[in-house]
Amino acid sequence: MHTFSCFPKPRRALAGSLLLAGMTAFLLSLPFSASAHQTCQAPGCAASEPYHGMPEIANIGARTGKYMDIPESAKGPAIDPAKGYRIQALGRGLYMVTENVYQSMFMVHDEGVIVADVPPPLAAFIPKAVREVTDKPITHIIYSHAHSDHIGATGDLLATLAR
Between the N and C ends of the chain, which has fewer C-beta atoms within 10 Å? Predict the structure, then answer.
């Protein structure tokens, strides 16, 4: 099969690279702003205000002095500062333990306790949380998946249980 090209074979890759570089330079030269997308239609906002109540977004690579505050409505229930974690009963012997960033679950069954995920910030709290609910031993650990923020403290938990 013959493919027509205005460039000989060795120069086709170079021509493609130059075309891609030219298109990228063109796209980067276009002016983009939030106001180009939508203007505020809410009562009481200025016509030039793109999104009512939305702070201006910093350019890529800009360092900001502060991130936005987390709204109260997005925060979970308070944890006990003396314990550093909280337990929430989910029903049928299933419990969640959290320090309001990471979570783990455990289920109490006839012979013991099954723990799902052992994130590093919770390794010391999980045995304490289980003891608040039951005196049965932890018999199984289940990983939801193999990311370190889910299984990274399993060795620490096992060492705690061996004592």
Answer: N
> Among the three residues 22, 38, 68, which one is the final residue of a domain in this structure?
68
Report whether 106 contacts 130 (CB < 8 A): yes
Residue 125: give its domain's CATH number. 3.60.15.10
Q: What is the pTM of this model?
A: 0.56
- Return the sign of the alpha-carbon dihedral for residues 116, 120, 121, 124: positive
Tens-digit pLDDT profile for residues 34-91 = 444 455 565 666 656 555 555 566 667 766 667 778 888 888 788 999 999 999 999 9
Kindly give the residue spans of alpha helices, DSSP state H, lying in the chain. Answer: 9-29, 125-133, 148-151, 154-162
What are φ and ψ of residue 141, in 5° steps?
A: -125, 130
What is the distance, to the nearest Å, from the Cα of residue 108 to the centroid of all Cα atoms in its chain?
28
Tokens encoding 47: 């016509």
Please name which of 131, 28, 122, 138 lies closest in space to residue 84, comparing C-alpha atoms: 122
Please indicate, yes or no, whether residues 41 and 78 belong to a single structural domain of this protein.
no
